[in-house]
Amino acid sequence: MKVAYWPGCVSRGFTPELHGSMERVAPLLDIELVTLDRASCCGAGVIAEHNQELADTLNARTFALAQEEISKGASMMMNICSTCQGAQGECQERLDANTPYRDHVNETLSAEGLTYEKGITNKHFLWMLVEEIGLDVVKSKVVRPLTNLRVGPFYGCYIVRPTDRLGIDADHPRDTYLQLLIEALGGDVVDYAGQYKCCGFPIITMNKQNSLRQAGRHLGDAMDAEADTLVTPCPLCHLNLDLQQPLAAGVVGRPLNMPVLHLPQLLGLALGLSPKELGMNKHVVKPSSVIDWTTSVIGAAA
């Protein structure tokens, strides 16, 4: 399957292990990634707060670039960031519903010879795994089952609400896909209070204490539920839950030691890739409850 691949800016900047692990996992699933290197940041709501038209134009440009690749044989656009999925989905809803506005945005894009045509299919990698590849196929490719690994799903905000825009319904229970994937990989799903709540990242520049308190509470809930690790489809959630975890521990007043994996990393482990190949040495909280850290990463690096 060939896809027009939008990795997002965070996965190539703050969390390069996400982009790197996706590139290693893709061939194992017979996915050909055509990276949209010329695409811009989705804005993640920040640009839209100041200039809605600018945010929509940037995303329409990304859609137009993806549609060029679709015209050459790619089946759809794919992303690996829940925040991108949410922000781009909101933008697409506005563009597709308003022909004069879409024409106005396309007038701006015409300077680059680009045009966005209504109706692009843009799916997060998690959705594609379940709906396009199929969990039975994924399961058949597992060479290292995650037996006895207790994994807590962390969805975050942008990939579970609003449900109508995200196409979550009885036929597409996308708010259960992480649980279904964990089970297909041989792991044990751990339910805990914070799995569908905001990680706190959106307010970190406005109210850092509350942001860290949110992250710390979710991490503590997962620890109390005896999870070995969390897995998230969102690099911004990963930043707040992993990078900020030492600070969050101070705010909530309890020790925290909860590894947080990117979705392709968890998948890659089950498909036989090494922790070092998946960039697990780049995490702030070392995933020692997931792997033998000394021999798998430090030893291999030496």
TrEMBL record:
<feature type="domain" description="Cysteine-rich">
    <location>
        <begin position="3"/>
        <end position="86"/>
    </location>
</feature>
<dbReference type="InterPro" id="IPR051278">
    <property type="entry name" value="HdrB/HdrD_reductase"/>
</dbReference>
<dbReference type="GO" id="GO:0016491">
    <property type="term" value="F:oxidoreductase activity"/>
</dbReference>
<keyword id="KW-0560">Oxidoreductase</keyword>
<dbReference type="InterPro" id="IPR004017">
    <property type="entry name" value="Cys_rich_dom"/>
</dbReference>
<dbReference type="Pfam" id="PF02754">
    <property type="entry name" value="CCG"/>
</dbReference>
<protein>
    <submittedName>
        <fullName>CoB--CoM heterodisulfide reductase iron-sulfur subunit B family protein</fullName>
    </submittedName>
</protein>
<feature type="domain" description="Cysteine-rich">
    <location>
        <begin position="154"/>
        <end position="242"/>
    </location>
</feature>
